[in-house]
């Protein structure tokens, strides 16, 4: 009994460590250059020249908008939206936003028409003409969705935590929860999510419950680019910016052909991105630089 209790405690500690928003990749992955004062001419000037056709892929929360205590409070600045609108309407740039939010939610937050939106980490894709693509979810798993939310609500929603229902996935948030309950909450949420056949993944002060499908933002980006262009889409100039662990899959997918940016203030964070930029404000300056190239 003592041994099993010790193992359970160690498992909880290991899982809690995984919930940190900053990650550590294998030692043989080189750290990307830090850009405390981004010089986009220096890092992208030879890659994206004026008039080049561009595919611009972006995360939303923590990239285009500051993280907040509740997703409903997140707002994209008018200046950021205007720059993104100018890029999307330039005729020289293809723009897609790939978010952990549900697809209609991220479209509502950004509010631009000439953009492809992908939600639930790529499980949903909404095109400007209204066409939708959804990755198939096994029926027996989908049938458990409401039961999973009900049990999470009954057992782990307390002291400031809550469950975000994204229709095909969920996020259990504990950013505002009292710290003495976080360890137990996170471990129990993981158990409940996995008991219903969903995958439990750590994210920013949260645990995400996703369908057991081999799919991620990187595969979603590859699908969007491949279906929007052709098999030679890698010959286009591709840029991506994101701030979360889930964005690393896109960074890996375009590595060596495109250019990517990890939004982080941690100079020691090892990432698959080509460069680091420190803030949402830096992303705005990246968009303004891109705008000067394509508009």
TrEMBL record:
Q: Name one GO biological process term.
A: trehalose biosynthetic process
| Cofactors (names) | a divalent metal cation
What InterPro entries does this protein map onto?
HAD-like_sf, HAD-SF_hydro_IIB, HAD_sf, OTSB-like, Trehalose_PPase
- What keywords were assigned to this record? Hydrolase, Signal
Secretion signal span: 1-24
**One Pfam family from the record:** Trehalose_PPase
> What reaction does this catalyse?
alpha,alpha-trehalose 6-phosphate + H2O = alpha,alpha-trehalose + phosphate
Enzyme Commission designation = 3.1.3.12
For this chain, one GO molecular function annotation is: trehalose-phosphatase activity
The metabolic or biological pathway listed in the UniProt record of this protein is: Glycan biosynthesis; trehalose biosynthesis
| Membrane spanning stretches | none
* Function, in words: Removes the phosphate from trehalose 6-phosphate to produce free trehalose.
Concerning its family, UniProt says: Belongs to the trehalose phosphatase family.
Q: Which PANTHER family match?
A: TREHALOSE 6-PHOSPHATE PHOSPHATASE
Q: What is this protein called?
A: Trehalose 6-phosphate phosphatase
Which species expresses this protein natively?
Anopheles christyi
């Amino acid at each position: 009994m003592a041994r099993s209790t010790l193992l359970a405690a160690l498992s909880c500690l290991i899982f809690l460590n995984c919930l940190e928003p900053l990650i550590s990749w294998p030692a043989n992955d080189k750290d990307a250059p830090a850009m405390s004062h981004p010089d986009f001419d220096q890092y992208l000037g030879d890659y994206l020249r004026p008039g080049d056709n561009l595919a611009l892929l972006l995360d939303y929360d923590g990239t285009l908008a500051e993280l907040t205590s509740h997703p409903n409070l997140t707002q994209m600045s008018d200046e950021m939206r205007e720059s993104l609108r100018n890029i999307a309407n330039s005729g020289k740039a293809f723009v897609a936003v790939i978010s952990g939010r549900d697809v209609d939610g991220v479209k509502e937050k950004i509010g631009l028409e000439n953009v492809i939106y992908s939600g639930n980490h790529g499980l949903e894709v909404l095109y400007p003409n209204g066409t939708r693509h959804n990755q198939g979810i096994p029926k027996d798993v989908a049938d458990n969705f409401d039961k999973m939310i009900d049990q999470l609500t009954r057992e782990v929603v307390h002291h400031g935590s809550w469950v975000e229902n994204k229709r095909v996935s969920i996020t259990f948030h504990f950013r505002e929860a009292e710290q003495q309950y976080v360890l137990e909450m996170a471990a129990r949420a993981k158990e409940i999510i996995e008991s219903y056949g969903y995958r439990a993944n750590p994210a920013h002060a949260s645990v995400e419950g996703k369908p057991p499908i081999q799919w991620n933002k990187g595969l979603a980006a590859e699908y969007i680019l491949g279906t929007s262009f052709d098999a030679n889409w890698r010959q286009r100039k591709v840029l991506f910016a994101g701030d979360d662990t889930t964005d690393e899959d896109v960074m890996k997918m375009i590595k060596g052909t495109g250019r990517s940016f990890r939004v982080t203030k941690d100079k020691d964070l090892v990432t698959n991105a080509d460069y680091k930029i420190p803030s949402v404000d830096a992303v705005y300056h990246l968009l303004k630089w891109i705008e000067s190239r394509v508009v």
